[in-house]
Amino acid sequence: MHLNPYGADAVKLAADLANRRPASAEELAHRCRAAGLVLELPVTPQDLDRAQEALQAWEEVVDTDDEHERAALLNRMLAAATAHPRMTNHTGTGWHLHYRGERLSLGSLLFSLISVGTALHLAGRGMHRLRRCAVTECTTIFADTSRTGRQRYCSQRCANRDAVRRHRARSTPSAT
User: Fold this and answer.
1) Which of 34, 74, 90, 126 has the most other CB atoms within 10 Å of its CB?
2) Smallest Cα–Cα separation from 52: which of 89, 87, 83, 27?
3) Helix, strand or coil for residue 98?
4) 113 closest CA partner among 99, 97, 129
């Protein structure tokens, strides 16, 4: 059985790339391979440019709080990135569905993967399940894959930092 590669894994890859932007095409390729992507073509500087374009558009989706605006931005990404769905067995591990054309460059592949994966993540889990960390000084993006859908922090470290800050604010006597 194949799990849907366009769900949480695609959104987590997008968050990883957006939070720590790759500096070169080689770094982009390495991180994508480490995430399990099969790269069918050589990676070029144009792939890095296209990936940066996808991440910029994706961050606009992340940063809007309005569900309708989020959907409109994501629909623009989908229109710019996707092709007809197709069945493939490119890895020889079994048939599965891709929402993209055959033999895409890495930049175009990422644009498609990020847009479709984000759409499936938000439609399946809730439009609020993509955000930045609630700690003011932390700008880390994360996809909420929690069971309850109430994740506010990018990590346990940020959750603890905020809890300590709130506790200290309650325990400190006000100077009057």
Assistant:
1) 74
2) 27
3) strand
4) 99
Beta strand pairing call for 96-98 and 130-132? unpaired
**Best CA proximity match to 143, nearest among 57, 26, 29, 15:** 15
> How do residues 4-38 score in pLDDT, each as one tens digit?
556 788 999 999 999 999 999 999 999 999 998 88
CA 43 to chain CA mean position, Å: 20
Indicate the SS3 state at residue 24. coil
The helix (run of H) or strand (run of E) holding residue 54 is: helix 45-63
CB 97 within 8 A of CB 87: yes
| Residue 91 DSSP code | T
Q: Are 45 and 74 in contact (CB under 8 A)?
A: no
Give yes or no for a contact between 51 and 106, defined as CB atoms under 8 angstroms apart: yes
Q: What's the pTM? A: 0.85
- The partner residues of 88 in beta bridges, in order of sequence, read 96
